[in-house]
Structure formats: C-alpha cells, structure tokens
C-alpha cells in the first residue's frame, strides 16, 4: 500500500492542549464550577449540539480566564466594565466583528443563566453592546474552480491512497449536500441510504433532516467505503463514516485543514474553509432554479431569512452580468 501523507492540522491541535490545560488549572474554583454547570445546562436543558456546546465553552472559558487575569475570583465581581474590557482586548487581538458579536451574545447567555441560577444578583451584560456583524456576502466558488478542484481530488484518489480517497469523498459530499462541517463529522455509515442517494443529518438543535446527493458524491463515497475506510478503521472507529488516520471519527478541524489547503491551490478566490462549499452549493442551487423553501430544507435553516442571504449572492452575480452585457447598463 502506498505511504500515507500526514494529516494536516494535527500538530497545532496537540500543541494547543497544554496551554488550555494551564489556563484551566489556574482558573478560580468558582469559575470552573460555573463553566461546567453552564455547559451541562446547554447540553441537557437546551439540547444544544456537542459542537455548539464546545463553542460556548471556549468563549466563556476565555471570558473567565480574562476575569482571573484581572484578579477576580467570583462571578459576582464580573461587571459591565470587565465585559467591555474583554471585548476590547479581543478587538485589539484582531478578531472579526462577527466573532466579537458572537462572543458578546455568548456572554449575555452566560450571565443570564447565572442570574436565573442565583449565582449573581444582577446581570452585568444587559447593557453590553458589540459591533454589528458586517453584511459581507459569503465566498462562493465558481463552477470552473469546482471542476478544477474535483479533477485534482479525482487524480489523487486514482493513486489509491486511503487519505486521498477520504478527502475526495468528504469534499464531494460537502458540496453535494451543503451540510455543515460538524454535521459531516457526525455522520455514521448507517446515515447514508446508498440506494436512494440520501443521507440523514442531525443538525442544530438536534433537528433531523434528509438531504439528497448526486452521483459523483455517491461514487466517491463508495470508493472511500470500499478501498479507503478499511485502511483507517480500528477499535475506536465505531460507525463513523469519515475517520482520521488514527482510526477515530474525523474532527471538524481536520476537515477545515483539508479544504483550506485545497482552496489555496485554486488561487484567486475569497472562499475559505468547508463552509465555502455550503455557500457554493446553496448559491448554485438557487442559480439553477431551485426554490428558496427547498434550499432552506436542504441547508437546515430554521429561518427563511437566513437562506435569503444566498439570493443576495445570486442577485449580485446577476447584476454584474447585466452591467457587462446590456448595451444601456
């Protein structure tokens, strides 16, 4: 069997763990207990997905570590001034406006929970404001770029390496279905109906939906299941559809590393990460005549307003074509 390439993203993940462990070790006991209770609340009472809970945990851990650095040891000491200072420090660190807005929203959720649990007497985040999210259009890959991408993946897979077979299958499936990277990582083999070419997805809020996929994705997944997955499978694999080289369920960070490296090879594109394949799938569906409700169902959006973002992408492309082609534009 050909030698396998090293999977991207593994070294950086392992290097980050000791630093996270040190932060947790130096965190005041009340902060650690509150963080654990809040995550338990999100998982058991709010039915948030594992991916969402991890995101909330990371955001609040950052807030509590910042508070500890300022000399605070109890939740009651956290006030509006500290919250603003925390967001200011994140802004100086270069975080995007959308990220700052999300961190502020997470902080409001945490302090609201702490007030209801009577861990604090007043909610310091009631007057906390964050930068408005910039309404930039998502990066979308052009059809020609996607063809080049899939040709590259197919050529690599033809050599027979399990890693290349897996990468081709996961990229094909991401674009064919428009599912989120966390949803892809959570797929089990039994979630695929190979005859009907559909898959069952557990999305945000533990909402289940069925999504179709096309023949190219079906062939790539079949190749991975027959010729690639057996090489990676081990005692820890379980029913996971996609595996890392160590035989465990693939991590979303590994998928991001794979797609980011592939997009860099395309050159001129604003697309980055696996979410670009979701953006591209939605935009190309609408450009091809799919109705908005169908795209909403495929993407698993709870609100039609979220799906309408992709109509803006299509209208923007239509406007550019009009201005280039119409003699009186």
From TrEMBL:
Quaternary state and interactors: Forms a cyclic heterotetrameric complex composed of two molecules of XerC and two molecules of XerD.
Biased composition (Low complexity): 15-29
Pfam family, any one: Phage_integrase
Identification of the protein by name: Tyrosine recombinase XerC
Gene3D superfamilies, A to Z: 1.10.150.130, Intergrase catalytic core
Location of the protein in the cell: Cytoplasm
Residue intervals of the Tyr recombinase domain: 136-323
Keyword RNA-binding (UniProt): no
Keyword terms of this UniProt record: Cell cycle, Cell division, Chromosome partition, Cytoplasm, DNA integration, DNA recombination, DNA-binding
Chief localization: cytoplasm
Domain Core-binding (CB): from-to ranges: 29-115
Function summary: Site-specific tyrosine recombinase, which acts by catalyzing the cutting and rejoining of the recombining DNA molecules. The XerC-XerD complex is essential to convert dimers of the bacterial chromosome into monomers to permit their segregation at cell division. It also contributes to the segregational stability of plasmids.
Gene encoding the protein: xerC
Family, similarity comment: Belongs to the 'phage' integrase family. XerC subfamily.
Residues the record marks as active site: 180, 204, 275, 278, 301, 310
SUPFAM superfamilies, per database record: DNA breaking-rejoining enzymes (SSF56349)
Organism of provenance: Arthrobacter pullicola
Region Disordered, annotated ranges: 1-29
């Amino acid at each position: 069997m050909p030698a396998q390439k090293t999977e991207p993203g593994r070294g950086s993940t392992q290097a980050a763990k000791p630093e996270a462990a040190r932060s947790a070790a130096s965190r005041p006991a009340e902060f650690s207990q509150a963080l654990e209770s809040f995550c338990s609340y999100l998982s058991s009472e709010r039915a948030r997905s594992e991916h969402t809970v991890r995101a909330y945990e990371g955001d609040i851990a950052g807030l509590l570590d910042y508070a500890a650095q300022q000399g605070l040891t109890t939740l009651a000491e956290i006030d509006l001034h500290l919250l603003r200072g925390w967001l200011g420090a994140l802004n100086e660190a270069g975080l995007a406006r959308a990220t700052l807005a999300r961190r502020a929203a997470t902080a409001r959720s945490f302090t609201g929970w702490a007030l209801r649990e009577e861990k604090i007497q007043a909610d310091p985040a009631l007057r906390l404001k964050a930068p408005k999210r910039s309404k930039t259009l998502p990066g979308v890959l052009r059809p020609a770029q996607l063809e080049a991408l899939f040709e590259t993946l197919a050529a690599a897979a033809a050599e027979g390496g399990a890693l290349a077979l897996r990468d081709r299958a996961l990229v094909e499936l991401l674009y064919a279905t428009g599912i989120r990277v966390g949803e892809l990582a959570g797929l089990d083999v039994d979630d695929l109906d190979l005859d009907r070419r559909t898959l069952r997805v557990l999305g945000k809020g533990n909402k289940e939906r069925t999504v179709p996929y096309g023949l190219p994705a079906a062939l790539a997944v079949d190749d991975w299941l027959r010729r690639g997955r057996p090489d990676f499978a081990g005692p820890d694999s379980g029913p996971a559809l996609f595996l890392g080289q160590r035989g465990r369920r693939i991590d979303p960070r590994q998928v991001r590393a794979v797609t980011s490296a592939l997009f860099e090879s395309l050159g001129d594109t604003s697309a980055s990460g696996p979410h670009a394949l979701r953006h591209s799938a939605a935009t190309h569906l609408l450009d091809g005549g799919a109705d908005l409700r169908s795209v909403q169902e495929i993407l698993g959006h709870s609100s039609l307003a979220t799906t309408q973002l992709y109509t803006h992408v299509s209208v923007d492309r239509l406007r550019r074509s009009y201005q280039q082609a119409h003699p009186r534009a």
